[in-house]
From TrEMBL:
Belongs to the alpha-IPM synthase/homocitrate synthase family. LeuA type 1 subfamily. GO terms for cellular component: cytosol. It comes from Henriciella algicola. The gene is leuA. Pathway: Amino-acid biosynthesis; L-leucine biosynthesis; L-leucine from 3-methyl-2-oxobutanoate: step 1/4. NCBIfam families: leuA_bact, PRK00915.1-3, PRK00915.1-4. GO terms for biological process: L-leucine biosynthetic process. This is 2-isopropylmalate synthase. It holds the Pfam family LeuA_dimer.
Length: 511
């Protein structure tokens, strides 16, 4: 028997709420790439930024709106009319624009953050929504800190928002305070109390401070919410937001008791997770549900034995369902260009002819040095190539003396604005020597905030993937690179971060 399923709209806020987590900033081009992937994946609504917060955010929302085809594109705005105008200006280029406006409604936020009384807040709700509604047809209103708001006052505010033309009402658990019974009960009570509740779509937005964001969002859906706000990898303020991949797969796997469906192509979840992790430099926890490296790994003998007999013994979903290919061993040095292009297409990349040639050259190079080339190797290779495109400082070559007899030394050459520059430096270990050499060639004050190394795949010939976070005058930038040689990957990651930092600094100066 097939049960009728209700459609849940997936609202992705990785580029807005996600980007608000400290250190998770994204460049303009990274946002465009991510938006493209989210749209192809079937995300219904993409919150692309907070247009009034900076010129960069405005331009990102505007350019994502211009390229969008099917997804609704929205930006966040406070209740100030200038913010709403700015947001309207950014999203108006979208095929389906939305303005998302919010104001705090809880006593603690009204008193200490807004320094406004309830009447003034109520008045701002009506005014802001009506103003937004004059600019676009699709207006979402959020009651910030709704779960700590007095119920009667929340009803009054929502009532005012609906009367002024809001089409979606969002009930955020801003501080991750609620739990499933309570949150589900709140959504139900609001829908039963507010007279025009059936005229709008109800939405959840749950933070993860108590680790309950996904459970709370699902409880919201069970009680009538039909939009869920979430982020890839659960990125977001503090402990993060509800993880998109977990919600989508919970509905897919447990359709028997959770009769909901989404429009998400789940085979792109792993790719989206890797992309967000690469862009932000936030590693995905190994045991993270759905997209963690170990999510489909079976280590113990008993489990392996069960899996060999029947995969259903220990797997409730197939790795392929979330885009983790079963046999990810892909190609060797004899693989041809067409096979390589097909492989890239299956991984979600369509490169122009020049970029394809360059990627193929890099692949051959890697296949010469590494026995087995896996999907993850190819993803790392292409991501590296794309992120290094058009950068001012480029890697040329590196030779390092390492080992227990010091001093460790790095002889490095970089291309800076097309000119080849060289430096030799020693350091407290080979990585320090490499970074000292970069500093000698490209003089800068930025401090190294984070240095991380992961193996892209298993095996001693695995590529090292290095993340570097630099912090210069309050501007942060994450660089990532991979190479079979950890020190080369380290140099490239540092250079990548440096280029991003410079681009951001220039942008700030221009603004
Ligand atoms: O957490 C929150 O309350 C928000 C709103 C502004 C939607 O992010
Ligand atoms: Zn939030």
């Amino acid at each position: 028997m097939t049960t009728e399923k209700d459609r849940i709209l997936i609202f992705d806020t990785t580029m807005r709420d996600g980007e608000q987590s400290p250190g998770a900033s994204m460049t303009h081009n990274e946002k465009l790439d991510l938006a493209d992937l989210l749209e192809t994946m079937g995300v219904d609504i993409i919150e692309a930024g907070f247009p009034a917060s900076s010129q960069g955010d405005f331009e990102a929302v505007r350019d994502i709106a211009r390229r969008s085809k099917s997804s609704v594109i929205t930006g966040l705005s406070r209740s100030k009319l200038e913010d709403i105008d700015r947001c309207g200006e950014a999203v108006r280029h979208a095929a389906r624009p939305r303005i998302h406006t919010f104001i705090s409604t809880s006593p603690v936020h009204m008193k200490h953050k807004l320094q406004m009384g309830p009447n003034a807040v109520l008045e701002a709700v009506g005014r802001s929504v009506a103003h937004a509604r004059n600019l676009v047809e699709d207006v979402e209103w959020s009651a910030e800190d709704a779960t700590r708001t007095e119920f009667d006052f929340l009803c009054k505010c929502i009532d005012a928002a609906i009367a002024s033309g809001a089409t979606t009402i969002n009930v955020p658990d801003t501080v991750g305070y609620t739990h499933p019974d309570e949150y589900g009960g709140l959504i139900r009570a609001l829908r039963e109390t507010i007279p025009n509740a059936d005229k709008v779509i109800w939405s959840t937005h749950c933070h993860n401070d108590l680790g309950l964001a996904v459970a709370n969002s699902i409880a919201g859906a069970q009680n009538g919410a039909r939009q869920i706000e979430c982020t890839i990898n659960g990125l977001g303020e503090r402990a993060g937001n509800a993880a998109l991949e977990e919600i989508v797969m919970a509905f897919k796997v447990r359709g028997d008791t959770l009769p909901f469906e989404t429009g998400i192509d789940t085979t792109r979840l792993a790719r989206a997770s890797q992309m967000v992790s690469r862009i932000t430099g936030f590693p995905v926890q190994y045991n993270k549900a759905i997209v963690g490296k170990n999510a489909f790994a079976h280590e113990s003998g008993i489990h392996q034995d069960g899996m060999l007999k029947n995969t259903e013994t220990y797997e409730i979903m197939k790795p392929e369902d979330v885009g983790v290919s079963k046999s990810s061993l892909v190609m060797g040095k004899l693989s041809g260009r067409n096979a390589f292009r097909d492989k890239l297409a299956s991984l979600g990349y369509e490169l122009d002819p020049d970029s394809l040639n360059e990627a193929f050259r890099r692949f051959k190079d890697l296949a010469d040095r590494k026995k087995h080339v896996f999907d993850d190797d190819i993803l790392a290779l292409v991501d590296d190539q794309l992120s290094a495109m058009g950068e001012r400082v480029g890697f040329d070559s590196l030779r390092v003396i390492a080992g227990s007899v010091g001093p460790q030394q790095a002889d490095l050459s970089l291309r800076v604005d097309g000119e080849l520059l060289e430096a030799s430096c020693t350091g407290n270990g080979p990585v320090d020597a490499v970074f000292n050499a970069i500093r000698k060639i490209v003089n800068h004050e930025a401090k190294l905030d984070l240095y991380q190394v992961h193996a892209v795949t298993g095996g001693t010939d695995a590529q090292a993937e290095v993340s570097v976070r630099l912090n210069g005058e309050g501007i942060m930038a994450v660089g990532r690179a991979s190479d079979p040689d950890t020190l080369v990957a380290s140099a490239k990651a540092y250079i990548h971060a440096l280029n991003k930092l410079e681009a951001r600094r220039m942008k700030r100066l221009a603004a």
